[in-house]
Specification:
424 residues; Spo0b-associated Gtp-binding Protein, Chain: A; Rossmann fold; six-stranded mixed beta sheet; 9 helices; 18 strands; 20% helix; 22% strand; elongated
C-alpha cells in the first residue's frame, strides 16, 4: 500500500556544553582558562529526489533525531559538531507543521532544505576571561532543541493527470504513450499508487500521471480516491477518461458527472482546472452509442470529446498532440506558499518565561523556565559566576520586574530554592 501522507517526529541535535578547564602544564605558572566551546547540534534536512516515489519509508519509522554536538574540551578544543540527519523524500512532498498547520516547505523539485537547525554550542570558560576576571569557573550549556511533529504530504508533480472510474484504461493508456510500466489487471483498483510517465508529442514532451480510480464518495473518503485526489492538485490539465462502451453497466454521461462532482467536492480550484474528455474503449461494440451520448451532452457546452482505443491505439496520437498543445497555453503553477522554516533556536529566548510571587512565608519568589535556564549557566559557589548571574538577571529584565513588584534594597528573594539579598 502506498503511503502519501504521514506524520513524523523530528528533532535537531542539542548543542554541546562549553567546558570549564585551566591550563596545568609544567613550567607554565598561573595557567589561565582553556575550556573550549561545545559543538553545534546536527540539523534536520529534507532532500527531495526523483529516486523515491512514495513516503513508505516513513510509514513505520516515525521518530528522527539528529546527533547532538559534543561538549567542549581542554586546551580550547571545540567539541565535534553533531552530524546532520538527511531525510530523503519524493519530489512533490510538502512539509507541514502539525501543531499550527502552516506549510514549512514545498519540495516540488530536486532540492535540499534545512527544516530544523541544530542547537548552538555553549561557550567554554576561556570565553569569559577578562582582565578583572582571570579565572572564570563557569561555562554555558549548549542550546537544547525542541522536537516537532510534521506532516509529510505527497502531491505528485505532473503536467496532466488521468482521472476517471476504475478500469477505464488509464494505466493502459499511460503504458502505451510513455515508458512507464504500471501494473495492469482485469479488476478494479489495479493502480494503488500514482504512476508518472514522460510523453513526447507534437508541441513537446510533458509528464502524464495515472491517478488511481475514483468512485462516488471519493472526496469523503470512499474507495482509494480520497487518498489520491491531492495528486491532481499540481496538474495543469485534467484528462477525464470515460468508458464509452458502458461494458460495466454504467451510463457514460452519469460517469462523467459523478467524477466531476467528486473533483468539485474536494476542491473548487481542482474542478476549475482545464479539462479534456476522452471516450475510451471505442473498440468495444456499442461504444459508438456512448460516444454519441457524451457528444450530445458536452459538446454544446464547448467540451470536445476525444475517442480512443487502447487495444488498437486509434486516436491516441491525436489525443497526446492535443494535450501537448493545450499545455502550452496553461502557465506552470506556482509552488505552495511557504510560511517559514522551523528553526528551533530562531526565537530561542522567547520560549523562556518567569513569574514573581510572594510565597506563604512572605519571601518573594521568582519561578519559571527562565530561572532554570539561568541556573544551568552558573555556579552559585563561584564569585565570578555570580557576577555573571547578576548580569543575566539584568539582561533578562528580572531586576526591573522585581523593582516593579515592590522589592526593596536588602530584601530577600528566592530563586531555584536559593535565597539572595536584593541589591539595588
Amino acid at each position: 500500500m502506498i503511503t502519501d501522507r504521514t506524520k513524523i517526529y523530528i528533532k535537531a541535535g542539542n548543542g554541546g556544553n562549553g567546558a570549564v578547564s585551566f591550563r596545568r602544564e609544567k613550567y607554565v605558572p598561573n595557567g589561565g582558562p582553556d575550556g573550549g566551546d561545545g559543538g553545534e547540534g546536527g540539523s534536520i534536512i529534507f532532500e527531495a529526489t526523483p529516486e523515491i516515489r512514495t513516503l513508505n519509508d516513513y510509514r513505520f519509522h516515525r521518530k528522527y533525531l539528529a546527533q547532538n554536538g559534543e561538549a567542549g574540551k581542554a586546551s580550547n578544543m571545540t567539541g565535534k559538531n553533531g552530524q546532520d540527519l538527511i531525510l530523503k523524500v519524493p519530489e512533490g512532498t510538502v512539509v507541514i507543521d502539525a501543531m499550527s498547520g502552516r506549510v514549512v516547505a514545498d519540495l516540488n523539485h530536486a532540492q535540499t532544505r534545512t527544516i530544523l537547525k541544530g542547537g548552538k554550542g555553549g561557550k567554554g570558560n576561556a570565553r569569559f576571561a577578562t582582565p578583572t576576571r582571570q579565572a572564570p569557573k563557569f561555562s554555558t550549556p549548549g542550546r537544547k532543541t525542541i522536537g516537532r511533529e510534521v506532516i509529510l504530504e505527497l502531491k505528485s508533480i505532473a503536467d496532466a493527470g488521468l482521472v476517471g472510474f476504475p478500469s477505464v484504461g488509464k494505466s493502459t493508456l499511460l503504458s502505451i504513450v510513455s515508458a512507464a510500466k504500471p501494473k495492469i489487471g482485469d479488476y478494479h483498483f489495479t493502480t494503488l499508487s500514482p504512476n508518472l510517465g514522460v510523453v513526447s508529442a507534437l508541441a513537446g514532451s510533458f509528464v502524464l500521471a495515472d491517478i488511481p480510480g475514483l468512485i462516488e464518495g471519493a472526496s469523503e473518503g470512499a474507495g482509494l480516491g480520497h487518498d489520491f485526489l491531492r495528486h491532481i492538485e499540481r496538474t495543469r490539465l485534467i484528462v477525464h477518461m470515460v468508458d464509452a462502451s458502458g461494458i460495466e453497466g454504467r451510463d457514460p454521461v452519469d460517469d462523467y458527472y459523478t467524477i466531476r462532482k467528486e473533483l468539485k467536492a474536494y476542491s473548487e480550484a481542482l474542478a476549475n482546472k482545464k479539462e479534456i474528455v476522452v471516450a475510451a474503449k471505442m473498440d468495444i461494440p456499442g461504444a459508438e452509442v456512448g460516444l454519441e451520448m457524451l457528444q450530445a451532452e458536452l459538446e454544446p457546452k464547448g467540451v470536445k470529446i476525444y475517442p480512443i482505443s487502447a487495444a488498437t491505439t486509434k486516436g491516441i496520437k491525436e489525443l497526446m498532440d492535443a494535450l501537448s498543445v493545450a499545455l502550452l497555453e496553461i502557465p506552470i503553477p506556482k509552488p505552495i506558499e511557504e510560511e517559514g522554516v522551523l528553526e528551533e533556536w530562531e526565537n530561542y529566548d522567547s520560549q523562556f518565561t518567569f513569574e514573581i510571587i510572594r510565597a506563604e512565608d512572605g519571601i518573594v519568589e521568582v519561578n519559571g523556565n527562565l530561572i532554570d535556564h539561568i541556573f544551568e549557566r552558573i555556579d552559585p559557589q563561584d564569585p565570578d559566576s555570580m557576577r555573571h548571574f547578576a548580569k543575566l538577571l539584568e539582561d533578562y529584565g528580572i531586576i526591573q520586574a522585581l523593582r516593579n513588584f515592590g522589592v526593596k534594597d536588602g530584601q530577600e528573594v528566592r530563586m531555584n530554592g536559593e535565597t539572595f539579598d536584593f541589591i539595588d
